[in-house]
Amino acid sequence: MNSSDFYKNKVVLITGASMGIGKDLALQVLQYGGKVTITGRNEQRLLAVKDEFQAYSEQLLIHKGNVANYENVVELIEKIILHFGKLDVLINNAGMSTIFGDLETITDKVVDEIIDTNVKGALFPSMVAIPKLKETKGSIIFISSIAAFQGIPAYSLYSLSKMALTALAQSLRIENKKTGVFVGIAYVGFTENDTGKRTLSPDGKLEKVPVRNKLITRPRSLTAKIILNQIANRRPRAYHSIFGKLIFILSKFTPFVTNILYKQIYKNTKNTRDSK
Ligand SMILES: NC(=O)c1ccc[n+]([C@@H]2O[C@H](COP(=O)([O-])OP(=O)(O)OC[C@H]3O[C@@H](n4cnc5c(N)ncnc54)[C@H](OP(=O)(O)O)[C@@H]3O)[C@@H](O)[C@H]2O)c1
User: Fold this and answer.
1) pTM score
2) Which residues are the active-site residues?
3) Mean pLDDT of the chain
């Protein structure tokens, strides 16, 4: 189905949408005529998006809150129902990534932050939204990564948090077979980073993300378009980019090949970092 037909008058919740992929998702749904709620912890950033999307003010709701906080999430869903009267689509997009670091160098605070945002931050909105989505026979989508196919050395925490979403999507898909709720997962590949994006260092500092090589990154608008199209067409899984598909096939059928590749990347990156 065409996204422009699907999203017209649909009520869509996008977690973590004050910047990055989430913000592009929000803009496209608004342009298709949907009603959008965006969330984030930083109110200034949410207000800046509200300003930028002024042309769609009737269709847009912002909510300051942490997706890893159950009470915040309950309040968020209640607010959407009060404001728009229903919920059709939940996009579990909020996520936090880490910088290269062996597990023993990572602090317990960083573990909490990643597990809270990437795992609880998708679990809680899903738990609370499912009864509302059953009423509309709506959709839930989890925004995962190619890091979910096979554990990436020095990114173990991020990998495991995204692998957890595969388990969650698999369980929910079966639980909702007869409810009419669609459950999907998007394995997003390297996407152009927002200039405001920060990532967690092993000791918990928020650091600016280095600019990625344009040859291996996708524009955020394209990543967002593919995600929205996946939901509109109820495709359970989407593997973004040729590289993503290749890693998926290698990890599934010849994991030793991915192992060799990851070992080499790990060795090279470690050597470069140690020599600095
Ligand atoms: N960019 C990529 O190349 C790539 C590749 C694969 C997968 N992904 C996944 O795609 C999703 C979006 O990535 P992105 O690069 O667009 O991220 P981003 O630019 O860092 O944006 C993350 C958004 O999530 C919000 N957020 C973070 N923690 C939150 C929390 N606990 N509660 C509520 N909101 C929270 C942030 O706002 P506040 O900080 O104000 O809360 C921000 O709006 C993530 O799940 C990521 O893992 C990205």
Assistant:
1) 0.97
2) 158
3) 96
- CA neighbor of 8 nearest in space, from 92, 88, 126: 88
Residue 199: how many other CB atoms lie within 10 Å: 16
Which region, left, alpha or beta, applies to residue 137 given φ > 0 means left and ψ of -120 to 50 means alpha? left
207 DSSP β-pair partners? 199
Domains of the chain: 3-274 (3.40.50.720)
Name every residue whose Cβ is closer than 8 Å to that of residue 202 and which is 6 or more positions away in sequence: 98, 99, 101, 102, 105, 106, 107, 110
Rounded to an integer, the average pLDDT of 230-241 is: 96
The answer to which of 31-45, 49-63, 192-206 has the lowest mean pLDDT is 192-206
Q: Would you report the helix, strand and coil content of the chain in percent, each value rounded to 5?
A: 55, 15, 30
Q: Residue 22: which H helix or E strand, with range? A: helix 20-31
Strands 198-200 and 206-208: antiparallel
125: Cβ below 6 Å to ligand 1? Answer: no
Whether the CB of 95 sits within 6 Å of ligand 1: yes
Q: Is the CB of 66 under 6 A from ligand 1?
A: yes
Residue type, 141: I
Provide the pLDDT for residue 254: 96
Query: How many Cα neighbours within 13 Å face the side chain of 102?
Result: 8
